[in-house]
Amino acid sequence: MPHTPIRFLLDYISPYAYLAWTRLPALAARHGRTVEPVPVLLAGLLNATGNIGPAEVAPKRVYIFKQTLRIAHAFNVPFAPPPAHPFNPLLALRVTAAVEDLGARSRLVSALYASAWGGGPGLETPETVGAAIQAAGLDAPALLAAAQTQAVKDRVRSNTEAALAAGAFGVPTYLADDELFFGVDSLEHLEQFLRGEDPLTPDALERWRTLPASASRR
Q1: Is the distance from CB of 89 to CB of 99 less than 8 angstroms?
Q2: Which of 47, 69, 97, 120 is packed most tightly, with the most Cβ within 10 A?
Q3: Mean pLDDT, residues 68-72
Q4: Confidence at residue 55, expressed as pLDDT on a 0 to 100 scale
Q5: Rg of the Cα trace of the chain?
Q6: Structure confidence at residue 158 as a pLDDT band (50, 70, 90)
């Protein structure tokens, strides 16, 4: 019986999601899995869960750059910040959602991430997004036009709503079977799960779920 794909919830605004993408396809392949990239709007996840983005916390914004640069060095992948951050990722998310074929979508994700975080010109204009589409071997005018249609806009919105329903609160998030993993630092835990060696037991999880709180900040 074939395994279901690992659903990779992504937003190009996140350097951690870029770094995760450089490792995830190979990780999945080691376990006979494919990856389904799913573009979601991080701002929508944050708003729905009452959270704020890491870059919105001034001291953390600087730390994020230092940490992601170090991770990129360890992963041996190109890394440079985009021209501005945070930036508006909607056009890049929408062109990604407009691609049905998973192989082509994966190529596009790689090209868009290279433009955002791999030393490219960013993703804030139709020109830079179009150049990334062309680099992926896809039809830039057709995808840029599709990104303006209501159907594709709704697809990004429904992806985000489905992510929230699955328990997602940020990116990168990986959904493997019925289990959710978050963050580039959980790739090892995801692989452990795929090997059938997850140390988490239903009893331990239930104890955490029913653990009472004895203090609150508010």
Answers
A1: no
A2: 97
A3: 98
A4: 85
A5: 18
A6: very high
Spatial strand order of the sheet with 179-182 comes to 35-39, 6-10, 173-176, 179-182
Mean pLDDT calculated for residue range 73-87: 96
Superfamily for 6-209?
A: Glutaredoxin (3.40.30.10)
Residue 186 has, within 13 A of its CA and on its CB side, a CA count of 18
Q: What residues does each domain of the chain span?
A: 6-209
Catalytic residue among 14, 106, 110, 115: 14
What is the value of pTM for the model shown?
A: 0.95
The question of whether 14 is a catalytic residue gets the answer yes
Distance between CA atoms of 166 and 168, rounded to whole angstroms?
6
Rounded Cα distance between 19 and 72, Å, is: 7
188: left (phi over 0), alpha (psi -120 to 50) or beta: alpha
